[in-house]
Write a structure and sequence with these properties.
The complex is a heterodimer of chains A (about 325) and B (about 400). Chain A is mainly α. Chain A folds into 2 domains: about 1-30; about 30-280, no CATH class. Chain A has 16 helices and 2 strands. Chain A has helices spanning about 1-30, 50-60, 65-70, 80-90, 100, 105-115, 115-120, 145-160, 170-175, 200-220, 230-235, 235-245, 245-250, 260-275, 280, 285-310; strands at about 185-190, 190. In chain A, a hairpin with a 2-residue loop joins β1 and β2 (about 190). The longest helix of chain A has 28 residues, at about 1-30. In chain A, about 35% of the residues are buried. Chain B folds into 2 domains: about 30-295, Up-down Bundle (Cytochrome Bc1 Complex, Chain C), CATH 1.20.810; about 305-404, no CATH class. Chain B is built from 16 helices and 2 strands. The longest helix of chain B has about 30 residues, at about 185-215. The chains are: A mainly alpha (about 325), B mainly alpha (about 400). Chains A and B meet through α1, α11 and α16 of A and α4, α5, α11 and α15 of B. The structure holds protoporphyrin IX containing FE (HEM). Protoporphyrin IX containing FE binds near residues 65, 98 and 280 of chain B.
Amino acid sequence: MKEFIVLGVVVFFSVLTYWLVEPFAHGQMHKHVDSHQFQYADLPAVTKQGDATAGKDLVMGAGACSGCHSIEADGVPAMMEPDMAAASYGVNPPDLSNAGAIYDAKFLTDLIKNPAHALKVEHKFDPASGAMHPMVPFYGAGGDMDQEVADMVAYLQSIAVKPSEVTSKMAFENACGRCHAMKYANWTQMGETPNFKYKKDALRYEARVLDYQDSLKKYMGKLPPDLSMYTRSRNHHFLSTFIEDPQVHLAGTAMPRVGVTADGADKVLTYLEEIGDPSKANGDRDRIGMYVMIFSLIFAIFAYLWKREIWKDLH
Amino acid sequence: MAHFEKANSIGEWFDQRLATKTLERVLAKEYWIPKDINFLWAMGMVLAITFGILLVSGIFLLMYYQPNVDTAFDSVNYTIMQEVGFGWLWRHVHAVAASVVFLIIYIHMFTGIYYGSYKKGREIIWVSGMLLFVAFSAEAFSGYMLPWGQMSYWAGMVITNLFSMGSLEMNGVVEWIRGDYVPGQAFLTRFFMLHVLLIPVAILALIGIHFGALRIPHVNNQNGEELDYEVEAEKYKSGNKAASKVIAFANDFMSKDMFVVAVYLIFFFYLTFWNYSFAMDPVNFDPADGLKTPAHIYPEWYFLWSYEILRPFSKDIGLLAFAFAQVIFVLLPWLDRSPNAVPASRRGLFKYWFWIMLANMIVLTTMGKLPPEGINNTIGLVSALLFIGQWLALPFVTMFEKKV
Ligand code: HEM
């Protein structure tokens, strides 16, 4: 029937135009980057079996981790307030309570030995030129260094919650929260903003956040962006491959490879969606969409019946 | 004081005062539409419904939107999208409708061109339709400024810059339009005013003219057949509806329109809920930043073809070509010299002119989005020249057409 041919022509040109300006054009505009499933193939495999008890002594002692990091799960408080820590290190060293669950073991192992290497920021921190990474590498406590590192990683894993218990919020706050604010989650680099009764307290706190951000700017070269809307402004594949290795997207960027597990990255992305696009994350959009589709379908059926009724006499 | 009898029913009461029965007859029951039409003739109704959707969703958004450079982005992306119940739904509906309305406008326009429905008494319909296109373009552009994202800011910058008229360097005009040296608060508030008041009012007026202009020449039909409406109407009214070549606007035509609208709504809501990024560009979810130019600045898809006519040339020639592309469609009824108002398939050379124009505008649309580098520049240039050439050739293409 002629009407269907006309419909076919209209649909053909509409779909063609859509395909050209959306999938095709975006494919041309953005570099294609493959995901490597957070395997971190460039890092050496872990060979040793760690011992958590020995690891605890190292983390608290020779490893010096607790000199910079808090480990609240094991009763080690922060040495300094976040803004003061940022003034000393450029950024507030994250609490290590759940590091064992969020970061990849191979990554942690390499991080302890050579932070700039694991974080892929060697272009910024080159010991030869005197630019040291603020996290000091572990040079060994006198024994088998690989064993010592494996012990520390085992300790971090032993105090952390089970990976399946890591919430999306925890993943974000641990892996990204020291650098990125998230306005729509009431989050700054200092942590969740408390409610203040008096305006002067709120302003004081705000000034401290600004101080933190100034330190961070000096350390990173620029202020890392607020991530509230990134779930809408970047696609899922971009974000995931960017977290896996920022350098492949932005060569020379100051943002480190944070070394999260595949599951950790997923949780970070879930959090971005929960905060940036809650009606999608909580399923409202799909659910209401289905109702509206069913309604439209029924409407179309009635419209068709009405048309048929009226056109009975016209043919 | 005129003499009024006591009315026997509410209908009669209104009829005495407003002549509602006459109106119903002239605008509905005896407003004759040819029977030989296809679903493309329902696109006007689809457009009216889409405009209605834009109006209603826009009013809901307006209750929470804040036209302030510091709060606009958050009022849209946080307040409306997260805090207001179903705010996200209204926003998606509004943004998707604003984009889809152009798809339908283009289908509607090309339908008009294909069937020759712009001449022999239908010139005002065509011209008012093109004015509607211009008004909708302005409406969409001004609306795009409102969320104050990166694309709002930079598209606002690039488009207002065009008014410096290239080498004439009329920067004063650009500043006058912006109310500032760069897009800022004054710019946002005036585009807000345009978007929610002046342009919608103009659109409503234009829709009135467009509909009014249809009444006397009637709509065209699939074969370009000239109908004797008196005779056909008599057949219809005498009960011989099947033999008559006309149908009544209501409810014959309406019932078919509503079915097409219903099918369209299924498509529309699918896009609203599951495939909206073509209408809500991801880049515009980054807040406006005057210090950071986005890697690719491109307009919404429906402006791409005219953007690409601007781009491949040097500054001044590009502007002239762009101006040409903006106005040339309006002149179509006079550039087409043929005596025929029949489908392109029956019109000799014009048939090729039509399909080449359509295909070339799709090529221009594509090139307008791709980064201007390498082979893209050449394709863009050739397409833009072809576009201009086709319009210049139109009088000659149609001049020798024989009357069918
Ligand atoms: C009188 C009717 C209308 C009203 C009251 C209205 C109101 C608004 C408001 C308050 C916004 C800002 C919120 C937002 O960005 O989502 C907006 C955005 C927008 N409007 Fe309208 N609007 C109307 C009609 C239209 C029409 C006819 C079009 C286009 C053909 C249009 C296109 C847009 C676009 C493209 C946006 C930006 C959408 C986005 O990116 O979120 N609007 N409108």
